[in-house]
């Protein structure tokens, strides 16, 4: 069954949201590079690549359902932060926001009895649990150790192993 235009529009919005996430994480990677935290930069670049994969999952799904992917404008991301801890605070807050967007799509798919989209979104529901958990764990470490230069160097090395 060809996807309903209302759902098509909502999923196009999510493609943009995932690409906006990629753009934000790439900007964070750039900040880390500029601040000599190469391990954190590596972690953020990987995160940005994952977000692009998320966008492509929805892109391909829309195409498979006979939909048309319309790319929207992506606003410029923030480029300055106080420190690494603030970056991971924003990462967690951002992932929590994305979770809400996914939940709204799940609700819409149920209202519209679009079972195929509901099924596709299950992957994202689970992925968001992981995304939030990862961001929470990293943030906890930076809150505890991020202000101590030697510990910060250790955390940077750890993130570089992603
Ligand atoms: Fe695509 Fe980080 O959620």
Topology:
Layout: H1 5-34, H2 38-64, H3 84-111, H4 115-145, H5 149-159
The structure holds MU-OXO-diiron.
Q: What is the succession of H and E elements?
A: HHHHH
Based on Cα principal axes, name the global outline: elongated
Q: Which structural category do the helix and sheet elements fall into?
A: mainly alpha
Determine the N-to-C terminus distance. 40 Å
Low-confidence stretches: none
Helix content: over 70%
Assembly form of the protein = single chain
Bound small-molecule species: MU-OXO-diiron
Mean pLDDT: 98
Number of helices: 5
**What value does the Rg take, in angstroms?**
17 Å
Largest sheet: none
Number of strands: 0
Strand portion, in percent?
under 5%
Keywords:
162 residues; mainly alpha; 5 helices; binds MU-OXO-diiron
Q: What do these coordinates show?
A:
The chain has 162 residues and is an all-alpha fold. It contains five helices and no strands. It has helices at residues 5-34, 38-64, 84-111, 115-145, 149-159. The protein starts with a helix and ends with a helix. The relative contact order is 0.17. The mean pLDDT is 98. MU-OXO-diiron binds next to helix 1, helix 2 and helix 3.
Give a brief outline of the structure.
The protein has 162 residues and is mainly alpha-helical.
């Amino acid at each position: 069954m060809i996807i309903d235009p209302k759902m098509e529009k909502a999923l196009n919005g999510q493609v943009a949201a995932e690409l906006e996430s990629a753009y934000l994480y790439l900007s964070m990677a750039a900040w880390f590079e500029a601040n000599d935290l190469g391990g954190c930069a590596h972690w953020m670049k990987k995160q940005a690549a994952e977000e692009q994969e998320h966008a492509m999952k929805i892109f391909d799904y829309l195409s498979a359902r006979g939909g048309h992917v319309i790319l929207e404008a992506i606003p410029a991301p923030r480029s300055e932060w106080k420190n690494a801890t603030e970056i991971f605070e924003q990462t967690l807050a951002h992932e929590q926001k994305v979770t809400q967007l996914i939940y709204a799509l799940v609700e819409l798919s149920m209202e519209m009895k679009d079972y195929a989209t509901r099924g596709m979104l299950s992957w994202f529901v689970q992925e968001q649990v992981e995304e939030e958990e990862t961001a929470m764990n990293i943030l906890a470490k930076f809150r505890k150790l991020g202000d101590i230069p030697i510990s910060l160097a250790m955390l940077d090395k750890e993130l570089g192993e992603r």
